[in-house]
Design brief:
This protein has 397 residues and is mainly α. 54% of the residues lie in helices and 3% in strands. The radius of gyration is 21 Å and the shape is globular. It holds the Pfam family Glyco_hydro_88.
Amino acid sequence: MIIQILGVIVLLIIIIIILIDIVPIGQDWLSRIHIGRYEDKQLWSKSITKVGLKWLNTTPKIKVTDHTRLVVIDMLKGNYTRSAIQHWQEASLLLGLSEYLQNHHDLEVERELKRYLDMKFDRQGQWRQMPTHVDTAILAYALMKVDFIETDDYKLALDTTWAMIREHIGHDGTVAYRKFMKGYRYVDTIGFICPFLVAYGIRYELEECVELALKQIKAYEERGMLEGHHIPSHAYEVDDKLPLGLFGWGRGLGWYAIGLIDAWNELPSDHAYKAILEESVKRFAKAAIAFQQANGNWNWTVTRGECRPDSSTTATLGWFMLNASKIEEIADMCLDSANQASNYLMKVTRRNGAVDFSQGDTKDIGVYSMLFNILPFTQGFCIRMMNFNHGFKVVKR
C-alpha cells in the first residue's frame, strides 16, 4: 500500500514537472494565433496600454536562463528570475503609462500607478527594498516622470539612488555595471543611469550629476563604438580600452539610445551640454537608421539581415527616433524611421495586445538569449512611443 502511494506521488510530481514545461509552450502557441491583425494605430495603442496596465502590478517574471525543459530546476535554484531584471521591466511600464497620462485623464491608470508606488516606497518616500544595483536608477527616473504625484515626496528614495550610483563609480570616473566588475563598462548602464542623473541633477541643482551622465556617454562614444559605423559594443574594458561582446547587439543599441535621448530631453534648451548631446543624437540616428530592415524592424544583431527581428530593439529605437525628430536637420528621416518601427510592432502584437518576439535576458557579455517572447520592457516603450506628443500625427502617409 505504501509503495502504491509513493508511486502515485512520484507520478504526480512527474506530471507537474511536465506541465510546468508544456503549459507555457502551449499558451504561446495559442496566443500567436491571428497575431499581427492590428491595422489601426489608435486601436493598437489602446490594446497595448491595457496590457501594460495589467502587467504593472503583476509583471510577468522574466527568465534568467533559456531553458525550456525541466524549468522547475531553475525555479528551485532561484535562477528563474531576479529582481534587477524586474526593475527595468517595471520602469518601462511606468514610463509608458506616465506618457499615456500626459494625453488622457484616466483615474484607473492613476490608481494602479499609485498602488504600484505604494508597494515600492514607504510613507517617508524611501525604497521599501534598498537598491543595490544601478538597474534601479531607471525605475527612479520613471518615478520622476509620474506627473500626478509630488516628486519631492520621494526625495529620500531619489537621494538613495544617487548615493548608490556614486558607490559604483570606478577609478576612471565613470559608473560600473556592478561593484565586483569595476573593470568593465556596459552599454546597459547608459540607459539605466543617465536619464535619472540628468533629471535628478537639474531638479535639485546638482551639476555633478549632469556631468557624470555626460561623462558616461562620451566615454562610451570614445571607447565602445565601432569605428566608421558608430554602433556600440556590449561593453569595454576600462584600462585596456578593449571592446567586449558583440558590436551591433540590438538591445545594446536600445540601451544607448534611450540613455542618450532621455538625457538630452531632460536638459533645458539653454544648458551648456544640450548642444553636445544633440550632436550625439544626430550621429547615432543616422548610424542606427542604416541598419533598419525593410519591414521596419531592427534585428537582434543589427548588422546581420539573417538574424531574427527583435521587438525590444525596435521599440527602444522607435522611441529614440520619434524624439530625435524634434531636431530639424534629421526630422524627416527620424519620423519615417519611427513610423516604420511602429508599423512592424503592430504586426508582431498578439490579439490580446501583448507585443511578441523580444529577445530574452542576456546571460553575460557576448552570451545572448535565443528565446523571443513577450517582454514588459518592450510593452512599456511601445506605449511610451504611441503616446508621445510629438508623434505620428505629423507623418505623411
